[in-house]
Each structure stands twice: as structure tokens, then as C-alpha cells.
Amino acid sequence: FPCICTLAQHEKRYSAWLWQEARLPDGFREASMETFNVAHPDNARVKAAAVRFITGEIETPWLCLIGSYGNGKTHVLCAIVRSFAGRGVHAVYAYVPAMLKEIQGAIDPTTATARYTEVFAAYQRSSVLALDDLGVEQSTEWSRATMEELVDYRYRECLPTVISTNRDISDLSPRIARRIGDRRMCTVVVNTAPAWNNRSTEKGRI
Description:
The protein is an alpha/beta fold. The chain has 7 helices and 5 strands, in the order ααβαβααβαβαβ.
């Protein structure tokens, strides 16, 4: 049997790996649902749905938050990822434009597809994935195909996924819109709350 010190070292390394994999933006590393501003009724609805997602009480494996810029979507997604990572679950936050740039950058003719597959799989197969600002990425044939492949995989495998967007679902790729619009798969919460500044330490997207 492994000694206690070996198990402790393994747990420490695994915990460090989880937090690295979480990829939380610097301004949101301490985001939590406890610090989420619920002064607006829609924010209260968002918080309730997010908490149900975290606890596994939500009826669907997906949660989609629709709202204008600055009303707390990034805070909620990071709080969800942080909660899962803190409980030992592989959860990944992804700002969609940056994620696509990373995946595209992994396409290197000199290394065939190995690096691309590794990078793409990190998002595709994560236990929990938070896709932030879906729809703001530059729309190209490659970006659409990549997002559709990612979303389709997680849809088929019923993998827990949180999505935020400031677009109407109908404005997204028809294939992705159908996945999000499937009520058996995804709970959609529309947030009409205005922009707000949750904490002075949180900068950039909220």
C-alpha cells in the first residue's frame, strides 16, 4: 500500500493540476456565487440556476445564460468552474475567442495533428466546460466547424456544459442553436439586468 505521504503528494499535485486546468482569468480567481450581485430579479434567477447546476439539482446537463455585456455572466461561469475544481472535478473555463485562437495555433504541419488533438480534447472531454461569450468570435468556416464539433461532442455525451452569450440563440450557428434549444438538454436563463461592477478586483469581462 502507498504510504500516507505519497498519497498526500499525489493529491497535492492533482489539486494543482485541476486549478491550472481551470484556466480562470486573474480577475475572477475568487469568484463565487456568494459574492454574486442579486439586486436585480434576473440575477437572482441566474444565481438560483447556477447553484442548482453546481449541486446537480438542475434538470438538464447544460445551462445557457443569455444577457447583455457586463451583467455578471463571466463571474457566474468562473464561480461554477471554481466550485467544481475545489471539489476535485476537472472543470475548464474558456473565453471562446481565446480558446479558438489556442486551438488554431496548435495546427502545425510539422507535428501533424498530435498537438491539435491534445489541445482540442482538453476542452472537448473536460468533465465540466464553461464557454464564455459564445458568438463574439470571428465567424469563419473553420471557427464555425470547430465550435460545432465541440458542442456536438458534448451534446452527444451529455457532458455538463455552461454557456454564456449576448446573442439571441437564433443568431448562433443553426446547428449550435438546435443543441442549446433542446429543452431536454439545456436550461436557458435570459438575464435583462443592466451592467454592474461586482467587485473592484474584477476587471474586464463581467
